[in-house]
Amino acid sequence: MQQRMTEINAAWMQGRLPRRKRESNKNDYGRVLAVCGAEGYTGAAYFAAQAAVRMGSGIVTLCVPQQIYPILAVKLNEPVIVPYDVSQSALAGHAARADALLIGCGLGRSADAVRLTHTLIRHADCPTVVDADGINALAGHIDVLQGASQPVILTPHAGEFARLTGKAPTPEAAGEFAQETGTTVLLKGFHSTIHTPEGGAFRILAGNPGMAKGGSGDILAGCILSLLGQRLFPVEEAVCAAAYLHSRAGDLCAEALGEYGMTPTDLLAFLPKALREAGDV
Q1: CATH number of 89's domain
Q2: Closest listed residue to residue 216, CA positions, set 178, 243, 240
Q3: Cα 70 from chain centroid?
Q4: Which of 154, 77, 79 is nearest to 121 (CA)?
């Protein structure tokens, strides 16, 4: 049976972003933590962290393996970059202070990555976005999701969803999985769909094939992380708003540069314009 979906478009988004108070500081706009990256996958961590900055987070902390810390410490200016080793000792304090958490972008598929993902989800005190290799780490371990005490948002593409669930990546299957596990599922694709634990279903009416490049999904994860951390909306609205703004930035980027030549780096630069359209003046 086909789900009835709420359309997330410009009309839905218009006016939802509140004006920022004149008298405010970085602590008013969320402290978010991204645990991402591995050797060979520094770009994923970069895009996720920079997207959170571009979406307005007050403090963005990026925790990366010690081996790639020197690379990202040079590439990124705004986020706080923290190295960790397999003991994970550097993560606990940062996670405890976070208003939202992201795990998985470019994390790799090692046994350490699997343990790290499970530990963070089980002990999180804030909404947690799980992307990419974080999702792969949950295949065969759905009990980790069912035992989470805070909202969990999964952002699989078609292949990741199939590996996680053993089912074809359809909106109906995503909706069933969201209700079974108590998670919010964003099934990525052309006109991505979002499914909530309560049975809500939403479709993003923006985006284009120029976004089908490595790194775009990491930017989406960072956008969701940021809006969750700013606590501007309930969880499902934050996910919908972040997904729409990400897709709208992609459309603006394609209009300016073309679908073939646009890159995820270009996409980052158009996030502020998408935010401006939505009422951030």
Answers
A1: 3.40.1190.20
A2: 243
A3: 24
A4: 154
Write down the pTM of the prediction. 0.97
Pairing of strands 193-195, 201-204: antiparallel
Q: What is the pLDDT along the chain (281 residues), one digit of tens a residue?
A: 456 899 999 999 999 999 999 999 999 999 999 999 999 999 999 999 999 999 999 999 999 999 999 999 999 999 999 999 855 666 888 899 999 999 999 999 999 999 999 999 999 999 999 999 999 999 999 999 999 999 999 999 999 999 999 999 999 999 999 999 999 999 999 999 999 999 999 999 999 999 999 999 999 999 999 999 999 999 999 999 999 999 999 999 999 999 999 999 999 999 999 999 998 54
In a domain, 207, yes or no: yes
Is 1 contained in some domain? no
